Amino acid sequence: MAxxxxxxxxxxxxxxxxxxxxxxxxxxxxxxxxxxxxxxxxHLARRGAEFGVTVxxxxxxxxxxxxxxxxxxxxxxxxxxxxxxxxxxxxIIRGHARFLSPTTVQVGDGALEAERIFINxxxxxxxxxxxGRAQVRTLTNTTLLELDALPRRLVVVGGSYVGLEFAxxxxxxxAEVTVVEKxxxxxxxxxxxxxxxIREILEAEGIEIRLASECIRFEPRGAEIAVxxxxxxxxxxxxxxxxxxxxxxxPNTDDLGLEAAGVEVDAHGYIVVDETLKTSVPHIWALxxxxxxxAFTHTSYNDFEIAAANLIDGAQRKVSDRISVYALYVDPPxxxxxxxxxxxxxxxxxxxxxxxxxxxxxxxxxxxxxxGFMKVVVDRDSDAILGAAILGVGGDEAIxxxxxxxxxxxxxxxxxxxxxxxxxxxxxxxxxxxxxxP
Length: 438
Ligand SMILES: Cc1cc2nc3c(=O)[nH]c(=O)nc-3n(C[C@H](O)[C@H](O)[C@H](O)COP(=O)(O)OP(=O)(O)OC[C@H]3O[C@@H](n4cnc5c(N)ncnc54)[C@H](O)[C@@H]3O)c2cc1C
Prior knowledge:
This protein is of the alpha/beta class. 32% of the residues lie in helices and 22% in strands.
């Protein structure tokens, strides 16, 4: 946003209180995907014999894993800093920003006046008030990424996107890992068969999964932490040397002085925006995680594209024009677009389903990575593609065929006629669209 505004000749101040690049670059996407790559390398090395490759005992040099992560993150952040520092019409101001009025923002001892203001403050990990939490040391995504030694036994509280990525990474790096989830299944917004398949994949790697954990509580136990799990059945507690809380995120809107600007927030602290991402004050926009309209880097980036196109190019883009897309970077990854089967049914669609296990995808067999499946959901009446899930090797990339097709309004029968490259994971997607349930 700063780049586009500055390039259009406007004078821009970019205020950052901590690290340029925000969550994604520093404590989100970039460090986690760098660790996912190290964990995958370890996993594949352990499987070497299956491919006829002889390797010695596989060891993990945890400080080297973290150093690689820091190097990738540092390079990404410094690239952004160099770009912004050299940008004409743009000044970076370091410090915490707070509204004094609808047009004035205070940073340190200074105050800035602006005709237009873009709020892009992101969010942070929720730390719920579980019983006993104050008596023990818990970690968030930020502090877990700062460890200098591998946890011996990691308990991950929260079996959703952030928690599961960390669980598998630390398991593959050598920690014992338990995932404690309050709901009856993992990633409960996905279709049940997706949740079940992910659970099987993680359990097969030796991750212990405790579902329906209604009674999460903490207690110091010597140098370790006892995590209370269940009041009704199973072992009532699990012991960890470290505990990660990955139970959701909250917007960084409580210390922004929004009341002084007259900017409305909802009951959860998200800034209320209209379809063009304007707040209740017409010259103030809210972009990214803080507006509650998305929780991903691509939704934040798309918010910028919408606001910039409308303001600078005179376009009429709306946030409701986009289709929900995301990936879960367990290995194999889950790529997702649009509605799940359950969501499509709940919305009243008559649907047709296409499904194929990865054991019947040639490229996956050749790679020796046959876990997971592909699934598509199609509207029976209109032949419109409603959604898809690809849980399998390359699923985060292969899903893009469906994403682009949905974006362009391609029907299922038109997709079925597309010729794809052999051998790829994606080549079976047209086949699935050609073999839908009646
Ligand atoms: C562990 C983890 C893994 C993730 N992995 C992925 C992934 O693989 N793919 C994906 O798409 N998304 C992922 N995400 C989500 C993604 O990081 C966020 O959706 C994205 O960073 C949101 O961008 P943003 O611009 O809204 O805010 P942020 O990136 O959070 O940036 C907000 C910035 O505002 C600053 N700030 C806040 N308040 C103030 C203030 N008052 N004054 C000055 N500065 C302030 C903050 O310091 C921060 O730098 C992940 C998140 C986590 C936690």
